[in-house]
Amino acid sequence: AQKVTQAQTEISVVEKEDVTLDCVYETRDTTYYLFWYKQPPSGELVFLIRRNSFDEQNEISGRYSWNFQKSTSSFNFTITASQVVDSAVYFCALSEDSPDNYGQNFVFGPGTRLSVLP
Amino acid sequence: DAGVIQSPRHEVTEMGQEVTLRCKPISGHNSLFWYRQTMMRGLELLIYFNNNVPIDDSGMPEDRFSAKMPNASFSTLKIQPSEPRDSAVYFCASSPWLGRIDGYTFGSGTRLTVV
Known about the structure:
The complex is a heterodimer of chains A (118) and B (115).
Chain A: E1 3-5, E2 10-14, E3 19-21, E4 24-26, E5 32-39, E6 46-52, E7 59-61, E8 64-69, E9 74-79, E10 88-96, E11 107-108, E12 112-117
Parallel strand pairs in A: 2-12
Antiparallel strand pairs in A: 1-4, 3-9, 5-6, 5-10, 7-8, 8-9, 10-11, 10-12
Chain B: E1 5-7, E2 10-13, E3 19-24, E4 31-38, E5 42-50, E6 53-56, E7 65-71, E8 74-79, E9 88-95, E10 105-106, E11 110-114
């Protein structure tokens, strides 16, 4: 069965610090997709990134970067030079590409609440 | 595109009342999903539709919950009768089609409080 673990329940950093949010997943499929979503205080879920299991290249988007390591089943998210606006709950999610669920059933991690203090 | 639109944003109702949550998916998206978010259980998939047909409703907690998608541009999630433990944020999401792993587009959610 698929599972996503985000061991860090809450993290507090001071503005301009770098912060890494951990995500560890479990799946028996060889084809799967990993996601990160941001949920700011306003409540909506904002899509940040999608990664498929065949693409282990790390990705950088501005201050955001993602480190995908299949060997450790991890898909960590780093925010460089954090800002107060980064304060939110961040969810990691996994979707298996199996015939049984057509890959539509996301499994979300419990989320990590990030507080960036001024 | 306006994105996935949910209404109302907030709903407060008394126990025993019927509650209807509404969702308008992105035009052209063929798959629609209802999720519930609570502190205790996180994000849970309740039901999803493909081409307006319910595919999997195994996440619906009880018979008090029902969902419909009468056409490609509208879906409802109904709770009758509502109970305090139904208090949660309910999200609707859509994606282009079943099997298209692009990531979902979520609505802003409906915060339901049952008193």
